[in-house]
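seq:
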Amino acid sequence: MPRIVALSDLHCGHYAGLTHPNWHVHEDRNAHVYALQREMWQWYRRLVRELQPVDVVIANGDLIDGRGERSGGTELITADREEQCTIALKALQQWGAKTYRLTYGTPYHTGQLEDWENRIAEWLDARIKAHQWLEVEGVTFDVKHKVGSSAIPHGRHTAIARERLWNVLWAEQDAQPGAAVYLRGHVHYHSYCGAPGWLAMTQPALQAAHTRYGARQCSGTVDWGLVHFDVADGQVTDWRAHTVRLASVRETAETLTCQD
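struct:
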């Protein structure tokens, strides 16, 4: 029974992105960032061990963080995008999968004049496209990185349900394969919907909710983790989102003492 792991938004190169121990910030330099990077890598490695054997890994975009213009590069552990690609490669190689498939992330992170994720695909001997349709044991996965987000909790299903409907319309014109599972990244939260015969979801991210841009510009919850699927005989026989509540990003209230 083939097992598929789908992950997204590693943002390697950012201090809150998934980071191989060879690139961890030194504890003496920034103890909090070190603790966060260490906790994320330990959870990631635990999931790698628990989910073996894995046949297919789908890496759904924003594998590197890029130049970090919005924060002046101050949140990067390295601004060298080739080195960021190497960090992402090290993370993906942990699975030892037979097959890797990649999608392109957003140009802000992965290159506006070039596609840096091509390097990762080349090193993994993997196909990378903007939009992938992957059939495993008779189950077709529709995979693309970017999807619309929602500022309201109950609206998070709308964009991913719309993606499914567009595929149905394209398939009626015989222009796309009809799919059973729809995967989207980008929004850094896990939400899903479906009905008999189809399942659509936004994937959790592998970057922690600990960025300057997110803290100052964004609202809503962030989910850290990944998803796995087991498929056989044209059906998804089992699937699960493995989401983790990272202790290193848990906020606490400051207690103020007021005296006369």
